[in-house]
Amino acid sequence: MTSVVTSCDGVAELMQAHSMIIRLGFEHDTWLTNSLINLYSKNGDLSSARLVFEPLKSKDVVSWTAMIVAYSYHGHGYHALQVFARMLISGIKPDEVTFIGLLSACSHAGLVNQGRAGLIDEAMNVVSAIPPSKKDEAVLVALLGACKLHGDVTIANYIGEKLLELESYSSGGYVLLANTHAAEGKWDEFAKVRKRMRERNVKKIPGYSQILVNGKNHVFFVGDRFNPKVEEIYGMLQHNLQPLMREMGYTPELLLTD
């Protein structure tokens, strides 16, 4: 059933698989429930993720972390903190993934004291204390993202070099580093990162949005014009949403998208 769940494409299929899990009496299986929490969250259904999580009797560190990450992913920082507090009370010891999700949630919600947002030097000291053998890409990318957010170019350049030394084939670090250089107008450095990506054949998986309408999944990529109602969609964007976004102070960023 875990294999079935992980192969589901969208919320509709996931709900069908979930119904089968309940009929078969597997709804209290911790490993299977953890997969459901994660996939419901990634498919945009936070309510279902929460409904799966709460009744679970044997919550392990993955269960708690999955729910914290789910709240973080959807921008609910306070709820993530509440789940973390409950996790500690339950006696489950958090791991590094738990703290990454928690810090991300604090960052999204602007919880400065709880997440120590903007204290780049302190964060750098924490990262520097990690042994080289355990210093992975996720940690460096998280710190690089903080540097970009708070405009700390010096540390961003240092972290960027460390990321490139890892010779990773994941696009996340490269894209974030390139966009950091773009935000500072350093186009030569931007071009160097793009060149390094080509040399290592690193491909960026395009981001997309997904929505379920009348039981059918609709997926949208940047610049996508394949939907049969594309004229109505772009009309709504141009005449309704874009003016509202400008009124709220939104200005587009030049970002690496391919």
Q: Give the overall form.
A: globular
The secondary-structure class comes to mainly alpha
Strand arrangement across the biggest beta sheet = 1-2
| Number of helices, where a helix is a run of at least 4 consecutive DSSP H or I residues | 14
Following the backbone from N to C, one meets helices and strands in this order, namely HHHHHHHHHHHHHEEH
| Radius of gyration using CA atoms only | 21 Å
Our estimate of the beta-strand percent is under 5%
Please state the average pLDDT score.
Answer: 76
Number of strands: 2
Give a quick account of the main beta sheet: strands, pairing sense, barrel closure: 2 strands, antiparallel
Distance between the termini: 35 Å
> Which runs of at least 5 residues are low in confidence (pLDDT < 50)?
none
Q: Into which percent range does the helicity of residues fall? A: 55-70%
Task: Describe the overall structure.
With 258 residues, the chain is mainly alpha-helical. Among the domains are: 118-205; 209-258, no CATH class. 64% of the residues lie in helices and 5% in strands. It has 14 helices and 2 strands, in the order αααααααααααααββα. Helix 3 packs parallel to helix 5, helix 4 (46-53) packs antiparallel against helix 5 (61-73) and helix 6 (77-90) packs antiparallel against helix 7 (96-109). The model has no long low-confidence stretch (mean pLDDT 76).
